[in-house]
Recover the amino acids of this structure.
């Protein structure tokens, strides 16, 4: 009689569910899974800190549309990893965090690393629970993946008690799950007809879509649809919201819109909650979302200004709109062109941006832009903080990942590693600040061990610049204290870990530094001494 451990069931179920790679950090509770995975074709990327696992799974989910899987041990391992769940939740990224857990038979008796893990993760996930039976482990995994994918995508946490992983059962008693096929909720046909009429009745409509629609393929489809129907479609995924520098002078357009059609885009702080002066008090709303609570929230907020609402998958809504009456492309041509000009606007003063002693962020980003232009297929990854906003404004690459609506910092190096695992043909460049580098610098070791050449560009202004800028605005220069750092030789960290380190002190050194990093075929850190200026807040002169 063949018997399976719970760990074998987990490994086989993950493989049947289509998982090809797991981002992990080992620990006592999950070593049975490590052993069981040897009998599968699933590859492990073994990292240096648990939050990095979840950030990597997040990037995988965003780039592929598949569920990105992270595996960590229980106790502090789980709580470390859980810190990154909020980033995935705000980015609407399908992620499955699997954590080891104290044995069920020892629960409540002071077991090793016993912790209420499901309770910790629940506020940062779509669902979080602890497996309770060996027989249902496969079902638990399939359910978790379905939840992560369906409706508004997002992270799910499943805790795996170690005694279940070690328990063995008759193989004939176990039914492994089949691949999960998420079901998209289609919009009611009368809803689409009504929305089409509402759009046609307004002079300055904007269709806004949320983070789940910001992947490269979906963004491309949205742009094509906007051109076909002649109505602007704007994808929003930045914590800067109306001041997202990648959207040019979007804020001025938003002020003038007379209709906002929110398709999978929450009415939240990124839109100033739909309130004046960011949005006209006369502006009307349409809200269609897979999450009923977000629709209800908009209804409570906007009352009779909400002209239509419904529950549906954003992709299905956009596809239906493309076949509706709104698709004739007439009636909004001037507005469409005006919005396009605003979104692509760059202040002319950027042409002369320079620093007498250091590199201006504009100079850094234009060098990266030119480099990516010479190396097609590249990926740009932007961290948070002030420096993270400049490449979003200037570098228009083929593929990009940003920190997301959560506003977190520190995810860019894990993002870059996960992106490189997908084996893109072009370079992978992460731009981050010197403060941010401290979060996951050890993951350069991961990149070296797995031969994943990434280019990490640090904008080094020797301070936590986002907070420093807040101090300047709110309290004045005399009270701008305690945000200082040293102009450290961060590139030497990469060298010590087996990568390449390059220090840049002038704009003229940047092109050669980027080419040398790319040619090295190794993980490279380019430490650029920059001028610590505020992030761009783009406005066209009136």
């Amino acid at each position: 009689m063949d018997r399976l451990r719970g760990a074998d069931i987990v490994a086989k179920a993950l493989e049947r569910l289509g998982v090809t790679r797991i981002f992990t950090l080992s620990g006592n509770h999950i070593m049975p899974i490590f052993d069981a995975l040897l009998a599968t074709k699933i590859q492990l990327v073994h990292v240096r800190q648990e939050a990095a696992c979840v950030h990597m799974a997040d990037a995988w989910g965003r780039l592929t549309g598949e569920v990105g899987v992270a595996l960590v041990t229980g106790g502090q391992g789980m709580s470390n990893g859980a810190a990154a769940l909020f980033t995935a939740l705000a980015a609407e990224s399908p992620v499955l965090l699997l954590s080891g857990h104290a044995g069920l038979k020892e629960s409540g008796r002071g077991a090793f690393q016993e912790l209420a893990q499901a309770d910790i993760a629940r506020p940062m996930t779509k669902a979080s629970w602890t497996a309770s039976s060996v027989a249902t482990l496969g079902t638990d995994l399939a359910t978790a993946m379905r939840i992560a994918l369906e409706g508004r995508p997002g992270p799910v946490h499943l805790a795996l008690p170690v005694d279940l992983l070690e328990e063995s059962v008759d193989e004939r008693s176990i039914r492994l799950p089949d691949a999960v096929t998420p079901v998209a909720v289609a919009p009611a046909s009368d809803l689409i007809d009504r929305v089409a009429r509402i759009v046609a009745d307004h002079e300055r409509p904007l269709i806004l879509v949320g983070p789940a629609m910001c992947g490269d393929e979906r963004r491309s489809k949205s742009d094509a649809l906007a051109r076909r129907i002649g109505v602007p479609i704007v994808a929003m995924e930045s914590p800067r919201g109306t001041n997202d520098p990648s959207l040019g002078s979007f804020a001025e357009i938003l002020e003038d819109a007379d209709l906002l059609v929110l398709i999978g885009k929450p009415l939240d702080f990124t839109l100033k909650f739909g309130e004046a002066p960011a949005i006209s008090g006369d502006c009307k709303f349409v809200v269609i979302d897979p999450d009923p609570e977000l629709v209800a929230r908009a209804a409570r907020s906007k009352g009779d200004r909400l002209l239509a609402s419904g529950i549906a998958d954003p992709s299905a809504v956009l596809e239906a709109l493309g076949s509706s009456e709104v698709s004739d492309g007439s009636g909004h041509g001037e507005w469409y062109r005006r919005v396009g000009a605003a979104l692509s606007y760059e202040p002319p003063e950027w042409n002369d941006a320079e620093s007498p002693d250091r590199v201006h962020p504009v100079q850094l980003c234009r060098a990266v832009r030119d480099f990516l232009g010479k190396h097609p297929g590249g990926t740009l990854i932007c961290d948070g903080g002030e420096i993270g906003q400049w490449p979003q404004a200037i570098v228009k690459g083929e593929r990009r990942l940003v920190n997301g609506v959560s506003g977190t910092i520190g995810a860019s190096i894990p993002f870059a590693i996960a992106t490189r695992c997908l084996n893109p043909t072009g370079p992978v460049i992460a731009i981050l600040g010197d403060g941010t580098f401290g979060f996951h610098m050890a993951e350069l070791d991961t990149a070296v061990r797995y031969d994943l050449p990434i280019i990490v560009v640090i904008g080094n202004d020797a301070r936590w610049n986002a907070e420093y800028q807040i101090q300047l605005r709110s309290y004045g220069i005399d009270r701008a204290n305690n945000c200082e750092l040293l102009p450290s030789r961060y590139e030497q960290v990469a060298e010590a870990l087996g990568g390449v380190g390059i220090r840049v002190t002038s704009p003229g050194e940047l092109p050669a530094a980027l080419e040398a990093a790319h040619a090295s075929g190794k993980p490279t850190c380019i430490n650029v001494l920059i001028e610590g200026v505020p992030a761009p807040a783009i406005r066209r002169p009136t």
